[in-house]
Amino acid sequence: MSKTRFFIWIGLVWAMMLPNELTAQERYQVGVCDWMVLKRQKLGEFELAKQLGCDGIEMDMGSLGQRDTFENKLRIPQEAALFRRTADSLGIKVGAVAMSGFYAQDLSKKDTYLSLAEDCFDTMDKMGGATVAFLPLGGSGNDWSTDKTKRAIIVKRLHDIGEAAKARGKVVGIDTHFDAKGNLKLLKEIGSDGIRIFYKWQTIIENGWDICKDMRRLGAQNICAMHASNTDKVWLRNDSAIDVPAIKQTLDQMGWSGWLFVERSRSTSMVRNVKMNYGNNVRYLKEIFNSYPTPEVTLHSEGREEDYVHTIIGRAQKATDELGITWTPMGENVRNIIANRYFTLNDIYTERDSIKKTDKRLAEALCDSRLYRSHFGFDADLAKYLKPQEVVQVKDVMTYGVVKVTYDAYCDMIPTLKSEEKEQIMRWLIEARELAIDAESSNKKHETFKKYKGRINNYLSQRGYDIQKEREAWEKRR
User: Fold this and answer.
1) Most CB contacts within 10 A, which of 270, 291, 386, 427?
2) pTM
3) Please, are residues 411 and 422 in contact by the beta-carbon 8 Å criterion?
4) pLDDT for position 343
5) Short-list 441, 446, 438, 447, CA closest to 345
6) So what's the pLDDT on residue 63?
């Protein structure tokens, strides 16, 4: 083979390989349902999705009830434009638009079904051209699978919706109570390329069917998107009923690609903690399906004992738990910033103790200098990811919440405190917290607050308060 032919051959091989590689990187995209994260058509859904590490969201059309139309604010051009700009600015896609009102409403009795579908398609266009709509059939009950008259009405209406979707370049994914065999039969009856299955793991699990076998039988071409979660009980990573790696392997073999939306799988021990529940589930899906992104902040754990590192990570995670961001990309960065601060403090005090053996004064001077120079950098690092009040929450966790406990105790002990006295107490406690953050141990942190409590007591005595009598009266009241 000549050199020319050889290089042409190599070029062709690379040309064939490159698109496949790019497709693999974007093959699976993960999002959440906005109505389940308490952000149904709220502008904050995009920022929340970003914090959770999502690629996008499944946006709902709004509630339906007995009305003829969805409560859809995106019919208003200004609202739609604002939502679109916000989503684009954050890099969050609208992967699907949901008509979740049909979880409770019967399609066979909703004569405005076509105008409802068109409203959905219009919203999809306004939000960046999403091509998949979600239509649950739960509100129609299960009797239509055997009631021929009702089934005929639903099939006819789904055909109409499918043809309208196809004309607009879209697909409507339906959620049924059937397995693959039942869904294939239904799709054949509907007879429209605009209708596919919006596959739901929860339905398969609740009926005791095998997800992987069922998906293979249904076929990749009939699945337009997935609700990748189970009923509320535990997080996906802890759910023994779902073998997510096996599902991923099956989908790879089927050649399927598309959106995976987390609908439920909330831990019942913290069912209202949106960030912890959905952050954990999104992270797990992305770990399995397309590798979770490496955090921006590197954990400085090199050369440190493994047990010590685990202890510090656990200590740092208490702060991200408090903020409800532990299982999010932002949470991982914040956790690493806090852990790195603990590592830095350990290094500073280890160096001080080493120098102390030969020169105690020099050791303390160097220690104070390094603490001062590194203190403000910690605030600056946190400020990249957290709001000012959240930075304060981190500091409170790192100092065991002593500021609030102590301030509340003084206010309770001396109900007659004036506003300027309360302000002075709080200022000193905040100052104590800044010093305590850099203390080398929990005992040293408490010693720092103890010194400032002495200063506060002296101040209040000078203001005419008898601290001993106030404390005794307080104990009686308590």
Assistant:
1) 386
2) 0.80
3) yes
4) 97
5) 438
6) 93
